[in-house]
Amino acid sequence: MRGQSILEVNEICKTFGPTKALRGVDLKVRSGEVLALIGENGAGKSTLLKILSGAHRADSGQMSIGDRPFRPSGPSDTRQSGVAMIYQELNLAPELSVEDNLLLGHRGTGGGLLIRNRQRSKVLDALRTVGLDGISPMAIVGEQSIATQQMIEIARALVAEARIILFDEPTSSLPQKDVARLFSIINDLKKRQIGMVYISHFLEEVREVADRYAVLRDGENVGEGKLEDVEDDTIVSMMVGRDVENLFPTVPHCPGEPWVKIQELTGFPYPKKINIELRRGEIFGIAGLVGAGRTELIRTVFGLDHLLTGSVSVNGESVRSSIGERIKAGFGIISEDRKNEGLAQNLSIIDNLTLSRLADYTTLGVLNLNRRKQTAEKLLNRVQVKCKSSGQAVSELSGGNQQKVAIARILHQQADILLMDEPTKGIDVGTKAEVYRMLGELAATGKTIIFVSSYLPELLAVCDRIGVMARGELRDVRDTLDWTEEEVMRVAIG
């Protein structure tokens, strides 16, 4: 029966050392509904889902599924209780087949042996439900697209006969057409009376897919209800604990003289003969669909990807294509892949900030640790990173605070030309507003910024000019005031 409570969470608390991640959180998930779990980075959303999935244990509180207590001792116990987790970072065995991934951890065995014939019909039915009836169960998972792997994760939950599915930022790596496909599947799951918890930082996405909402702030409940009864501004105010007058703050800045010239830039397979002239103090946005070549352009400009033809010059001086020469010329980059490329997760915040430029802290080869620490802490204050200390491991920070560390790193590097690939990906609306303000302040000091984003509202709100890419080519460049979302998409789809 739709609307019947199938999962209840009461007074859940969780601490990590001195940090209180959850402070008496309550939650109720109903059958056939999607509950949007909303909050800033560090609010406790992912911690709560990890407790529900069995990855963490709560320090105190009670959980129940139906009328039975729910105390998972680990992920396997959670699956057997009918709860499945779809992580932001896909949790599949890429070298195994689709069928093997769907049946991993499944209890349908006889005498310790998996009876494939008995399970094949379940596998095929699950694949059909998520729109993958055209894929072979023997296909290797690692050879499939990210969108297909996301659907395989959901199919695995169906094979396990999950009654509750937890989604943690499931659309962060999906192109728009696959987001629509995911939402269609979620609607089908609702018809099957499956209850879902859905984390997303995009409020327009939440409104499209969810029925109810619950807001966490600093590990506590601060609001809940039906989405149809609440305005976006009210939700954002709950998240940040104050009224947010402007989700897209702009700082006055005036682009100056031509500074960076990109001519006939070509790589393999992308970009293709890109020509851009950038000015000092300009925020230049790059839009386009996933696969349009935006990231390849950024990487080729920085020297990470091989340059086939073309040139990059700064203030009239040609710059060789090696990474070292580009850094000397003032280039700095923020990678879209924060986890694997943007930051060294196993190192401290201070190491991530300063390792790319240690010369200021060394005398005769001896590192002045106090001077380095003072500089790092000034930078952390400037970009408002929430952390225990500069010695804390980057991996312990929330996604939004990690992104601020990445921005602080290129500021410490004293880069004048900032190449930013999806700098607001996976961070909450409050932190996004801080990043937008920071970009404006950097432009006001004369820094040149290339801003790649899949989120058109932020490009239209923050940038001075926007160029649209399609199939590796820069199809059109206009002043931002001359663009609309519809016109950007028209050019992007060719």
Overview of this structure, please?
This protein has 494 residues and is of the alpha/beta class. It has 2 domains: 5-240, Rossmann fold (3-Layer(aba) Sandwich); 258-492, Rossmann fold, CATH 3.40.50. 33% of the residues lie in helices and 26% in strands. The chain has 17 helices and 24 strands. The strands form 6 sheets. The protein has a 6-stranded mixed β-sheet, sandwiched between helices. Helix 4 (116-129) packs across helix 5 (146-159) and helix 13 (369-382) packs across helix 14 (399-412). The protein is globular and about 70 Å long. The two termini are 46 Å apart.
CATH architecture term of the largest domain:
3-Layer(aba) Sandwich
- CATH H-level superfamily title of the largest domain: P-loop containing nucleotide triphosphate hydrolases
Radius of gyration: 24 Å
Number of helices: 17
Q: How would you sum up the major sheet? A: 6 strands, mixed
Name the shape in a single word. globular
Biggest sheet, spatial arrangement of strands:
6-9-10-3-11-12
The total tally of domains equals: 2
CATH third-level topology of the largest domain: Rossmann fold
Low-confidence residue ranges:
none
Strand content: 25-35%
- CA(first)-CA(last) distance: 46 Å
Q: What is the chains' assembly state? A: single chain
Average per-residue pLDDT, rounded, comes to: 89
Q: Total number of β-strand segments? A: 24
Secondary structure class reads alpha/beta
Mind telling me the CATH class of the largest domain? Alpha Beta
Estimated helix fraction: 25-40%
